[in-house]
């Protein structure tokens, strides 16, 4: 009998967020992350915090996490150590010369 790994996202926004984090360049300017659109030349501003925000139409309409916020969260891995300090590791997309 086969089993499904529970860590694989099934929500379309999560899947698209993972795709953005893995394939696109997310830039940081201060506390704002600039996330490119998958379908146009637009770039959306994402701010993380207690209530993450994005300038994309999906987030502005639904007021819930959009794929751009999820992409930033996937690109940044936060780990809290037992002494309470937080380690933030930013993943970088590796590119190779052709």
Features:
98 residues; disordered N terminus; 26% strand; 6 strands; alpha+beta; four-stranded antiparallel sheet; two-stranded antiparallel sheet
Q: What would you note in describing this structure?
A:
It is a single chain. Helix content is 28%, strand content 26%. With 98 residues, the chain is α+β, with helices and mostly antiparallel strands. The strands form two sheets. It has a four-stranded antiparallel beta sheet. Helix 1 crosses helix 3. It is globular.
Could you give a short description of this structure?
The protein is an alpha+beta fold and 98 residues long. Helices cover 28% and strands 26% of the residues.
| Sheet/helix structural class | alpha+beta
Task: Report the uncertain regions.
Answer: 1-5
Supply Rg. 15 Å
| Strand element count | 6
Strand order of the largest sheet: 1-2-3-4
Question: Helicity range of the residues?
Answer: 25-40%
Counting DSSP H or I runs of 4 or more residues, the number of helices is 3
Which percent range describes the beta-strand content? 25-35%
Identify the overall geometry.
globular
What composes the largest sheet?
A: 4 strands, antiparallel
Estimate the mean pLDDT confidence.
Answer: 83
Amino- and carboxy-terminal Cα gap: 42 Å
> What is the N-to-C succession of helices and strands?
HEEEEHHEE
């Amino acid at each position: 009998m086969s089993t499904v790994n529970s860590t694989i996202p099934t929500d379309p926004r999560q899947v698209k967020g993972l795709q953005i984090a893995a394939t696109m360049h997310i830039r940081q300017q201060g506390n704002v992350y600039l996330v490119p659109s998958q379908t146009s030349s637009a770039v959306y501003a994402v701010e993380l915090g207690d209530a993450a925000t994005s300038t994309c139409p999906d987030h502005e309409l639904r007021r819930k996490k959009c794929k751009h916020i999820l992409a930033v969260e996937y690109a940044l891995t936060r780990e809290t150590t037992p002494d309470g300090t937080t380690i933030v590791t930013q993943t970088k997309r590796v590119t190779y010369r052709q």
